[in-house]
From TrEMBL:
<keyword id="KW-0862">Zinc</keyword>
<dbReference type="InterPro" id="IPR001876">
    <property type="entry name" value="Znf_RanBP2"/>
</dbReference>
<keyword id="KW-0479">Metal-binding</keyword>
<feature type="domain" description="RanBP2-type">
    <location>
        <begin position="49"/>
        <end position="80"/>
    </location>
</feature>
<keyword id="KW-0863">Zinc-finger</keyword>
<dbReference type="InterPro" id="IPR036443">
    <property type="entry name" value="Znf_RanBP2_sf"/>
</dbReference>
<feature type="domain" description="RanBP2-type">
    <location>
        <begin position="4"/>
        <end position="34"/>
    </location>
</feature>
<dbReference type="GO" id="GO:0003729">
    <property type="term" value="F:mRNA binding"/>
</dbReference>
<dbReference type="GO" id="GO:0005737">
    <property type="term" value="C:cytoplasm"/>
</dbReference>
<dbReference type="Pfam" id="PF00641">
    <property type="entry name" value="Zn_ribbon_RanBP"/>
</dbReference>
<dbReference type="GO" id="GO:0008270">
    <property type="term" value="F:zinc ion binding"/>
</dbReference>
<protein>
    <submittedName>
        <fullName>ZINC FINGER PROTEIN</fullName>
    </submittedName>
</protein>
Amino acid sequence: MSWTAGGDWMCSACQHQNFKKREMCQRCGYPKYGGPDPATYICNATKVLAGDWYCTAMNCQAHNYASRSSCYSCGALKNDHAAGGYGSNAYGSDGSADPPGWKTGDWVCTR
């Protein structure tokens, strides 16, 4: 872990900069002190579900839930082609293959 001015710290596992008050990394949950070997720690082990998308704006790469219309991290609007999204325009509706992990009959709720 490295420290920045004011006591903020950078996570040893994912390199995310955290505020001084945090005891665990905001991004991956790695503890501020101690913890397993950062090289083997499973960073950001959130499960990617059908409809989720990754932001590619300015190399953001944040994992966003399907319900989000903009990136939680940088605020960029969801764009099915640029963001690699699994929205209704990207797969299925035009006869192309379903997104990874989808089964026949799967769909994304628009509410």
